Amino acid sequence: MNIKHTLHIFAIPIIVFFGIGAYLLLNNIFHYRTIAIFLALILVVMGSWKMIVETVTAFLRKQFALDYIAILAILVSIFTGQYLVALVIVLMLSSGTQLEEYGMTKAQQSLTALSDRIPKEVMRLSTDDHTTKVAIASVVVGERILVRKGEVVPLDGVLESTTALTDESSLTGEPYMLDKLKGDQIRSGIVNMGDVMIVLVTKTDDESTYRKIIGMVQEAQQEKAPLIRLADRYSTIFTIITLVIATFAYLISHDIGRVLAVLVVATPCPLILATPIALFGGMNAAAKRRVLVKRLSALEVLARVTTFIFDKTGTLTLGKPTVTNIVMLDNSMDADHALQIAEAIERNSLHPIAKAIVDAAREKNSTQLSARDIMEETGVGISAIVEDVRYHISKMEQSHDINAVELKREGEIVARIEFEDTLKQDSTDILKEIHQLGVKIHIFTGDKKENAEKILLQLGDIREYLTLKADCSPTEKKDGVAALKAGGEVTAMVGDGINDAPALALADVGMVFSNEEQTAASEAADIVFLGGDLEDVKETIRIAKRTINIALQSIIVGIGLSIVAMIFAALGYIPAIAGALLQEAIDVAVILNALRASRG
């Protein structure tokens, strides 16, 4: 959102603010009272017409609202000639309204990065293999497209190239590169990590896997229940008390001035100011931990979440393969030597498995060997000459829940190097602490059930309190969140990938671990963790609860002081002007207390 657009949203509060200055000059300095009154009336109408329409709509629906008091205060202020009081009320309320609109506009932009991830144009191959750059929307089923290394596949299809290497973590969450062979299905949204691939298109842009995910995110955002603001829970009783005291003031005095004094003191600033200021403070406290709160009300909802749903890969786990075991199949060599040979071969490869092998060797401080005549072929593997012997590393065929590569010497298998995605160091403790808050915990993962359960075994006793749902597609994750919400749960979804985006958008609070590969996924969330530390989730919950406690303190104390002041105003001890000053003092007390939330 650019500065020009932001200024457009806040145009009315800005105009009213400078209009108040103009009113004071015209009325108090130049004594052009008629012009000043005319200007005040224009500003009041400009700043309050939207609020009046919404209040009338709420009244017709038989709903109470804080705006009843504000509108009544504005009308009485004008009736009694207190135009400055009316303008101050309008400025305060229009600013709050525009802040809400600003937040809604930001939320509506959440699909931008998801959509922008897919290129708008693609290279189309003709029957004679000539390439033409065309708009994706113009590509039809049966045509061929060319996808270069590092590019996102824009359309679903079938691989026509002999082999390909793809990164499908954005859709499945699994941190492994997948080898593809001619005839395999290729889904939009995945990344080509190998040589140029040719894809025979089987679905148009509107029907593609990735577009359906974006559609689910949009649908989920529309389904998300509107927030019942903290202040709204106290508005009905406060409105009734105010009207009762104002009526009492008139009945005992028949003085409209006392009524205005009551209404001015009752202008619901504590209710209006306490929550947003505390939430802004909470947002600041979270930012100090490199946690970005994109939707201000997310902290309010997070404080009362009853169920957390965690993605596994990249959220509870590191999200990358790690060497966990080396199985020797040749007694002439030990595991350390096999790892040294593998590290020499893989040292200059960009494959994630290669990085895992290199990292494992460095952790062991293994002696580095040199490799020459390195040959890497997508879908086949990598080979090199180490210690005057040709070795070859290739991916082992999937066997149950084992992810592994085989180290071969002159065609004979020497060792099997196994990999797993491992838990983050603090996962068990953090989940236990979150559970102790009285929160239910579910794990939704796109990983295979065997792999997911293997990871859960590392969680120890806490796994008894978890509900696991494996092999989840983006649709199934979203449906799982919807089912929990339908059961009355207030939900928070914690994920890190585009495959989590629909569930993140639908959950009452979406929380995402952002990283370089999955920044687009963060657009569907309300809270973004810039680091990978799971403790940030626990700390954000703590910040949210503390923030709302402070907001509640401010609201209750502010209401209490306002009620006391209203009673004195009704009895004639506080005139309207003094009431306005007193209300300002109450507001300052509320603001100072609410600002404590920024200390985290």
Automatic annotation (TrEMBL):
Q: Where is the signal peptide?
A: none
> Which SUPFAM superfamilies does the entry mention?
Calcium ATPase, transduction domain A, Calcium ATPase, transmembrane domain M, HAD-like
GO MF, one example: ATP binding
Q: Which UniProt keywords apply?
A: ATP-binding, Cell membrane, Membrane, Metal-binding, Nucleotide-binding, Transmembrane, Transmembrane helix
- Record keyword Transmembrane helix present: yes
Q: Which residue range or ranges hold the P-type ATPase A domain?
A: 118-218
InterPro entries xrefs: ATPase_P-typ_cyto_dom_N, ATPase_P-typ_P_site, ATPase_P-typ_TM_dom_sf, ATPase_P-typ_transduc_dom_A_sf, ATPase_P-type_domA, Cation_Transport_ATPase_IB, HAD-like_sf, HAD_sf
- GO (cellular component) term, any one: plasma membrane
Localisation per UniProt entry:
Cell membrane; Membrane
> Where do the TM regions start and end?
6-25, 32-49, 69-94, 234-253, 259-280, 550-571
Q: Which residues form a coiled coil?
A: none
Pfam families noted in UniProt? E1-E2_ATPase, Hydrolase
NCBIfam families assigned: ATPase-IB2_Cd, ATPase-IB_hvy, ATPase_P-type
Q: Family assignment?
A: Belongs to the cation transport ATPase (P-type) (TC 3.A.3) family. Type IB subfamily.
This protein's name: Cadmium-translocating P-type ATPase
Species: Candidatus Magasanikbacteria bacterium CG_4_10_14_0_2_um_filter_41_31
